[in-house]
Amino acid sequence: MFLINGKERDSLAANDRAIQFGDGCFTTARVRHGRGGRGYNPAACLTPIRMLSLSPAPMHYARWREAGITLALSPVRLGRNPHLAGLKHLNRLEQVLIRAHLEQTDAEEALVLDSEGWVTECCAANLFWRAGDTVFTPRLTHAGVNGIMRQHCLSRLAQSRYHVVEVSAREEAVQQADEVLLCNALMPVVPVKAFGDVRYLSHELYEFLAPYCELSD
């Protein structure tokens, strides 16, 4: 038996934040003379569930591509777990906390470090930065999401004159870059104009990648 908001039900809306982001908490209590079962063992879960949701594309991304965005360093750090690194699993609770802190700043996106202080990603995007002809992106062996647009950009860059390095770097490397940009499947690439007091004037890498990542109507 399941009680949801005090009523006996056996389903939850697909757009509930617990389903989409893992945004919730739980506790476990012993019930005497009742039925047990369920737990972390996936052996009894034989049928996967596939869900598809449609929603309007974020309109502000067009403005971001035109004007660029600012980054703020997030105080929330990502836990390191090589078993989950690279995967976009349903538990997005860290991103929920990152976003909550971002809303307290004037920045559009957050630069996110892992628990050891290595640059990893942004709240809802992957990160690239350029120094000369070398393009860097965080190594995602311990934390972060290996997004589809990140993979696409890496593929394009591998065929270009740029030298691409997946790296473990501190935030100072981003501050010292000639150029910084973000990407995700919806943006798809957006230039960064400032990170704290540091301003980026070059759009060279953005102008190279943008034609390969154009959104079609």
Mean pLDDT equals 90
Can you write the helix and strand succession as a string?
EEHHEHEEEEHEHEEEH
Characterize the overall form.
elongated
Indicate how many domains the architecture comprises. Answer: 1
Which fold does the CATH topology refer to? Answer: D-amino Acid Aminotransferase, Chain A, domain 2
CATH level 4 superfamily: D-amino Acid Aminotransferase, subunit A, domain 2
**Class in CATH?**
Alpha Beta
What is the percent of helical residues? 10-25%
Written description of the protein model:
The protein has helices at about 15-20, 60-65, 95-100, 150-160, 170-175, 205-210, and strands spanning about 5, 5-10, 70-75, 110-115, 120, 125-130, 135-140, 165, 180-185, 190-195, 200. The chain starts with a strand and ends in an 8-residue tail after the last helix. It is built from 6 helices and 11 strands. The protein has a single domain (about 60-215), classed as D-amino Acid Aminotransferase, Chain A, domain 2, CATH 3.20.10.10. The model has no long low-confidence stretch (mean pLDDT about 90). By secondary structure, the protein is α/β, with parallel strands linked by helices. The longest helix is centred in the C-terminal third of the chain and has 11 residues, at about 150-160. It is elongated and about 70 Å long.
Descriptive tags:
about 220 residues; alpha/beta; D-amino Acid Aminotransferase, Chain A, domain 2; nine-stranded mixed sheet; two-stranded antiparallel sheet; 11 strands
